[in-house]
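Anyone up for a design puzzle?
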């Protein structure tokens, strides 16, 4: 309102000093070195956050900056992200029931709890099922994750949550790992949703040993969190897609383009699953 009223009158009514106003104006028009550096850093943070599908918070953004040779403190990164309204997406709380415990099928023991830490690919797999809401209805996603590199080695999608969905994901995992898997090795595969009988035959034929966690302690909570917790709020998918076909396209792009090849994992020293395997094998 300085074009309509004297500065001194405005400062008096707004309870600010004229010198403070002129100092603020000078700094706004001619920012200092720190402000200029913050502007450049904020732009780079915005680019990293966009490439992460809006999933990275300050810790991962800081690690990505360090890979580029920038040594900025996490508090500074968090402050600039807050100023720009950027934050890592969190998983939603609402869940569709994907576990059916009322059955008379045999249940495999929890062998994974006593298993030693994986030291190479295809030693320990975990499997789970999640859901994606569309305007056409639910789309279910089954995925098999390698605990060594956190890589999704097999996955499948369907309108129905059934045995065929699980077997498709397992078949993809077995096909993808065939060239890496020793002929006489065993691969404990843990699944929290599916009765052991469902995968007993294909597991035995492939040399897998089944493992299941107890009821209420689903593996997705520990190993599949970001991918299988709630795709729409945790992975950069649109909040509500129109069709299942759109969901299939976005999930394929997320898993194969971003999650396996680009997403930084804190458990992997902030490398992606593919990079981690290349660096350690």
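Challenge accepted. My sequence:
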């Amino acid at each position: 309102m300085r074009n309509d009223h004297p500065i001194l009158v405005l400062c008096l009514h707004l309870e600010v000093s004229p010198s403070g106003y002129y100092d603020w104006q000078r700094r706004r028009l001619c920012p200092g070195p720190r402000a200029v550096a913050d502007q450049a850093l904020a732009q780079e943070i915005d680019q990293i956050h966009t490439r992460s599908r809006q999933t990275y918070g300050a810790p991962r953004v800081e690690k990505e900056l360090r890979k580029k040779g920038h040594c900025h403190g996490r508090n500074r990164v968090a402050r600039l992200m807050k100023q720009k309204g950027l934050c890592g997406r969190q998983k939603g709380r609402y869940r569709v029931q994907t576990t059916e415990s009322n059955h008379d099928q045999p249940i495999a023991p929890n062998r994974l709890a006593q298993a030693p830490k994986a030291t190479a690919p295809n030693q320990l797999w975990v499997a789970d099922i999640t859901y994606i809401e569309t305007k056409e209805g639910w789309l279910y996603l089954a995925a098999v994750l390698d605990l060594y590199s956190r890589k999704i080695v097999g996955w499948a999608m369907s309108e129905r949550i059934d045995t065929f969905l699980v077997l498709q994901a397992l078949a993809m995992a077995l096909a993808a790992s065939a060239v890496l898997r020793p002929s006489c090795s065993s691969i404990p595969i843990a699944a929290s949703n599916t009765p052991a009988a469902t995968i007993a035959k294909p597991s035995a034929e492939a040399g897998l040993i089944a493992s299941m966690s107890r009821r209420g302690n689903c593996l997705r909570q520990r190993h599949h969190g970001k991918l299988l917790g709630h795709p729409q709020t945790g992975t950069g998918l649109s909040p509500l897609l129109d069709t299942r076909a759109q969901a299939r396209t976005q999930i394929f792009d997320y898993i194969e383009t971003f999650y396996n090849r680009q997403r930084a994992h804190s458990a992997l020293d902030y490398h992606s699953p593919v990079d981690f395997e290349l660096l350690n094998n």
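A detail worth pointing out: The longest strand covers residues 125-134.
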